Amino acid sequence: MIPVPSSAKRAAARLLPPLLVWMFLGWLAFPYLASRLYGMLGVPIDLVELTYFSYAAAGLSLAVAIALWTYATLHPYKGDDDLIAVEPMIPCMFCGAEIPRESRLCPACGREIPW
Amino acid sequence: MPERIRPKHLLLSFGLGAFSGFLAVVGEIGFIGNTLPLALADMTLWTLLLASIVAPLVEESVKPVGLFVAYQEDRPNLTIQQWALLGLMAGLGFALLEDILYVLSIVPFGADAALTLLGMRLLFPVHMICTTLTGIGYGLWVKTRQPMHFILFIAIAMCIHGLFNFSASVVG
Fold it and tell me: Which residue out of B136, B148, B169 would a mutagenesis test of the A interface target, given it has the greatest number of A Cβ atoms within 10 Å?
């Protein structure tokens, strides 16, 4: 299991709820638009099954949005201090010398750091 | 000290996210060409395979190309949240281009059908959700130098995308 830093969880919890609420509203409107489109194209669909599924998916989207919003409220995003403190310097992938994380060139061996 | 997101990085993410839509379509057309016998034998299985496995793998792999280019160009010192926002922009660009391609494909059925399809496509921000997660993974990779974080988040994004496409294929 890869440990996920708390700053990543907090960033996700802050950004994703509005998109999930958008998804919730989308699933609510989906049966109407789908029945309209398939009616125009002459394709038969099971509207009852489609509606049940859409409302279940809408409920799931809303539940995840509320859970993430609650997490974001309880654990507000405060930057990435937990990450920066871990690794301000990294080893050069070619010679192993310690270099600043943002470096494009290794001052020791002079090679360009591709990542 | 983290810096602000530059407009150039937002444009790069958005523009290359949209361009990657073309790349994904080309990749998926290649898959279609190579699997026609399967399509003719079992159309339902082939549609599920394309929508639930091939499309998420191809699309989630190419969408964050703008983030890679932004990092290669300027090495911006951004927070995880800012990388996630760049990911969101890449997903928005990709989704808009894909929506346009879908709508153009249905124009022969009439403007009303095309507009209804556009409305249906705009209901679901699944590309933005998935690429936001990929952006978080990329930000973690940049900051910690551990590619496993990126692999984990892009795998989660692929699973969400595949699950969404699977459900859309089954019911819609």
Answer: B136
Would you call B59 exposed, middle or buried from its count of C-beta atoms within 10 A (0-12, 13-18, 19+)? buried
Q: What are the phi and psi torsion angles at A89 (to 5°)?
A: -120, 145
- Rounded to whole angstroms, how far apart are CA atoms B31 and B36? 9
d(CA A61, CA B124): 11
Q: A29 in contact with B at a CB cutoff of 8 Å?
A: yes
- Largest Cα separation within chain A, whole Å, is 69
From the CA atom positions of chain B, what is the Rg in Å?
17
What is the per-residue pLDDT for B21? 83
Q: Please report, rounded to a whole number, the percentage of residues in chain A having pLDDT higher than 70.
A: 90
Q: If you count them, how many residues does chain A have?
A: 115
Nearest by CB: B145 against A4, A5, A90: A90
For residue B92, which phi and psi values (nearest 5 degrees)?
-65, -45
User: Is the pLDDT assigned to residue B1 strictly greater than 70?
Assistant: no
Decide if pLDDT at A84 tops 70.
no
Do residues B115 and B102 make contact, with C-beta atoms less than 8 angstroms apart?
Answer: no
Secondary structure class of B110 (helix, strand, coil): coil
Our CA dihedral for A74, A75, A77, A83, rounded to 10 degrees, sits at 180
Are the Cβ atoms of B129 and A16 closer than 8 angstroms?
Answer: yes
What is the tens place of the pLDDT at every residue in B33-90?
666 666 667 777 777 888 888 889 989 999 999 999 988 888 888 889 999 999 999 9
Looking at residue B36, its pLDDT comes to 66
CA distance A29 to A37: 13
Does residue B168 register a pLDDT over 90? no
Cβ contact (<8 Å) for B88 and A41?
A: no
Predicted model pTM: 0.85
